[in-house]
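Kindly go through one protein, given below as sequence and tokens. The question is how this chain folds according to its tokens.

***
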Amino acid sequence: MALWGGRFEKDMDQIVKAFNASIGFDQRMYNEDIDGSIAHVTMLAAQGIVTEDERDQIIAGLESIRKRIADGEIVFDVEDEDIHMGIESRLIQDIGEVGKKLHTARSRNDQCQVDGRLYLKKEIRQIMDELMELEDVILRKADQYADEITVGFTHIQHAQPITIGFIFMAYFQMFRRDIERLSDTLERMDLNPLGACALAGTTFPTDRKLTSELLGFRGPTENAMDSVSDRDYAIEFLSDASISMMHISRWAEEFAWWNSSEFSFISIDDSFCTGSSIMPQKKNPDMAELLRGKSGRVYGDLMQMLTVMKGTPLAYNKDFQEDKEGLFDAADTWKACVRIFTRMLDKTEFRVDRIREHLDQGFLNATDVAEHLAMEGIPFREAHNIVGRMVKACEERGCQLEDLTDKELTEIDPRVNKESLGDISIRACVDARRSYGGTAPSEVRRQVGEGRKWLDSLSEK
């Protein structure tokens, strides 16, 4: 009979046991469960609720169980129901009656919340470390390609010339926000629900501040009912994961078409590609495509959690057992994707020779010409119209803007000639975009420097 079975005359049906059990997935939190129990019994002894000798027996028993789990000597099954019951039942088997005192002044409701928060705190720190490593690669690549020009797109159409380093720094900002979101999530969730019990607290004289200190939380949660029914921290983490996976997916999408024969902008290292089972010439960007696809999996984890929570009344409901698998899956997937993407990015080189072949397509310098004319005193809307007519003339003649003759320019507008246009080469256009946040190499290197300062400040914490 289960530890909670005193009120029941029958044991659970075997099929119900299997359906009810969470031990198949929550056993990965055994370290967090044992840490929570050690802190709890330490507090119970400090408050005189159990003796110091009982505390020591329970802690020794828990540490023995921890070692046996790690060594593979303990194998859980559906009879254990969940990690909390699995550990407590073995503790009672190992040390006898004193083991039954461990669960004084707590419930599985607050216990599973402690485990979940401790586990997620650890995962968040690991994912932040992975994201920081990605940011380091981005900064190095941005500096490497700060001077190299490529095509900037809008609507998947050639738009303006930019530097490759500029693209890297755009993604740097995205992943910076991912790290900052995780940091915010960690700050909000860093509260200890242990001692909330089932939903209403306890009559025992517990010290929740002590267990918070022992477990490394910044303090206890404020309301016991909210403590056991809250899953905001998990939803927020899944939202963070979804946004970050969207960033990865966007860049992976660009990798896929940059790698295509039509572009050939990049060369992805062979170790991150696969071949075809039938077409021997193929080198497929499978890792980029998988990274793009994995985002849908994490989005699903977020939607599942939101759906589970949307109709649940206060306080605890068995529905909440469904909070863990999606959380574990998202954490595992996100962490693996960041790690893979970091390594793929580090081993990908841009084919600047191939990119240069695309720079004379799409009149990339058109906006710069319009801005130059506006600086010469022509109202921007007029300048915009003039350059539009210049583009039309080039399309009819099959040439570039800089190839138009003085005669052709003055026919379009008498205020325009080659001398008034000045240097409208692609290089000159890029170098001139020195506005704060712009694409000029000097500005990209400033962004790299600021990014490095920020990243170094995180490493020092």
About this structure: Strands lie at 149-154, 157-163, 266-267, 349-350. The radius of gyration is 31 Å.
